[in-house]
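Narrative progress, year one. The postdoctoral researcher (J.K.) led the effort to move from monomer predictions toward full complexes, under supervision of the PI. The following entry was the first complex the group processed end to end, covering 554 residues in total.
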Amino acid sequence: MDSLAPASSKAHALQRRYGAAVPAAGPWNDVIAALLEHRSVRAYRPDPLPPGTLETLVAAASSAATSSNMQWWSVVAVSDPAVKKELAKIAGNQKHIEQCPLFLLWVADMARNQRIADAEKTTFETMPWLETFMVAAIDAALAAQNATVAAESLGLGTVYIGAMRNDPQRVAELVGLPKQAVVVFGLCVGHPDPAAKAEVKPRLPQSSVLHHGRYGATGEAADRAAYDKEMAAFSSRNEMQATTWTQRVKNRLGPIASMNGRERLRGILAAMGFEVR
Amino acid sequence: MDSLAPASSKAHALQRRYGAAVPAAGPWNDVIAALLEHRSVRAYRPDPLPPGTLETLVAAASSAATSSNMQWWSVVAVSDPAVKKELAKIAGNQKHIEQCPLFLLWVADMARNQRIADAEKTTFETMPWLETFMVAAIDAALAAQNATVAAESLGLGTVYIGAMRNDPQRVAELVGLPKQAVVVFGLCVGHPDPAAKAEVKPRLPQSSVLHHGRYGATGEAADRAAYDKEMAAFSSRNEMQATTWTQRVKNRLGPIASMNGRERLRGILAAMGFEVR
């Protein structure tokens, strides 16, 4: 395993992840150290992946929990430069989609279930509900996260691409998805470009996300003020627009325009065979 | 790391996960071997977890990717036996919820965002959409899966509990969630009871879930027939009702009654402050 911090660097790993708000973490090992090292990678070398890497990542993905062992997901592996170029356009020209040698499209796949219903000459009453779509999307997310952990353990970089939902119908066309199958997100996989800086990004203090027994928001305002400072410093160190987290939340959640058309998702899903009642 | 298969047991790990349909997996290491070893644990010793375990798991969770660094999730840690007993009832009397020393409730948390909007005296136009709820649920899933990988690396067992969605309002009441916060699933964490058998469960062959460049279903019928045999043998070995996977899919997806009321989720979410337009 490349690039694993040794267990002795626990304090350092926690400080990178939380800035000054270091939590009272206990047990530690190399797997946990590797998880703490995650950062999204948006610059890749063009080198292909070692043979069998895709199958290893899918074996990790298949090993994640899945609701009632139903496995309502599948994955399309894209390496064709022309297709990746089109997918990058849909995602607002995210160049890393073109750069990475392997782009994985994670599919909430009820089409497989429909084929089972057809083959068995029966009707599945539970298909058109929000609950069912949500389980499929969550199954896909658990699988993808295992693939991500596996990729990072091999020294590879990844970044999730939610912007596949800017135009799920065009994405489906590009890779031949049938009705009742929709890409919930993409995932770039490749060798990180060593010339590009990729620092671990600080997260909210645990006191803002972890609730003991009952939900509470005491201390949240102070946490947010401290986190705003951490993120402003992070942005400045990483040559991003130096702004606070609060401002980023306002930019992302405030104007409907920030959704890039994704407010139409429910109607689009209906047209793709997911009713989401 | 306890109970890690050495990298040399790659063939054995793949055979346990896929039965006869062993894929052409390539690179391998101890992290990947640990991911392949996953099995859901439904019997726990009552022993408490080592001090700081919760904080370690949350540090792993916080390290997962999150859409635009928005972190639209939180987690409620439940150890009170009385509360766990009520939560077990909601889940159709799943006794492992009572047994495990730590039960984590993973929350799609737009309430934190609403508090930011209120504090900043602004309106967030992007809140009431399916897209936004889905991102929150996926963020919670990515975080929970990292916590699961971390727990298993420490020799602990886990099992996801989707049945928290049988009654999201009662779950919210039990742990004091505000409006716009909903538990998407629970996660038992604890020391596995060594007396209980927990075999790695086979999954669908990779040829049914992995598509190269374009989606296709050629070979799916043959895959399913082979997998039906694997799962019937697995069920028989594990003293479960010996039935095929196809039959389980029909039982789970066929009758609306199998949803245990979860077909009402969209309306319930609306009552909880998630409009899901």
